[in-house]
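Quick start: what a row looks like.
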Amino acid sequence: MFGRDFKQSINGVLPPSLTSLDLSISIHMYDMELNTLPSSLTEIYLPSFFSTRLDHTPLQRLHVRSFVPSGPYPNLRKLWITDYTSRSNFNPTRYPSLTGLYIKTGEHVQDLSPFPMVTLKCFRMSQPSGRFDMMSVINPIPFGIEKLALDGCQFKLSNAKCLPNSIRRLELKGCMGMRPDSIPQSVTWLSLNVATQHWWSTDKGIFLSLRPSLNHLTVSVDKIFAKNRLFKQLPTSIRSLILELNIGHVLPLLRLSDRTYFRYHSSPSSSSSTEIIPINSFGFMDIDAVNLWVDNCFPMRYG
């Protein structure tokens, strides 16, 4: 990692054993070409406003803010774009080996067609918050993707088989219009938030539509969830469960039996390894205690 004021060429001077290079902290218009770099270097974090030439064919992982240099990238496997726009210079034909694409959009994206869904194994897209227009998922996502995370998508115009049976891990946030039976049978790890949970807002038994292949579920707890005791309708295959509240409370549980759970501590990845964890963050809970915890989060009268 280099400092904020760094503006010197690094071509031909880096250690031959270097594997990762972080230039992202630079706030200046870093305009030095990157071309004579160690063959061991497989990961680069580019400066925020980098727009010059990058020529390093051994590169496997690239992190950019918005603009993707033209390349070439014959061995690039993972690409992160933290502020994707129509001016990001993203061209799927330049990344023949790409299997992971992680995008935060700086503007509204209409559809998924610009992205190489056929070759990807992992795809994550986060839309801008506070928008009323949503990206429409119309065409089926090709078979092959194993990890999919979408934020702010509309599935109203898609068919029931829009998600392929290759998906193992699925995260849906603020997504609307998709039926619970559209979740592929291959999914074993599922995360849903309140907006997506509107699926079951009119049918308290709709949790039974969740696939028996699930072994993990992260779900937002809302009034509908609490009122209808949906916790008791979860598939028995689920072994780990995280109940989330929009006010910041989280209850992570390991399922030991039909009635017994173990509560563990779930801290953010940024937490210090020396963090002091309170003893009451751990312990056994039966299903009645879990339901009581949910009720206490919504103490109002359900009528």
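That is the whole record. Confidence is low (pLDDT under 50) at residues 200-206, 268-279. The radius of gyration is 23 Å.
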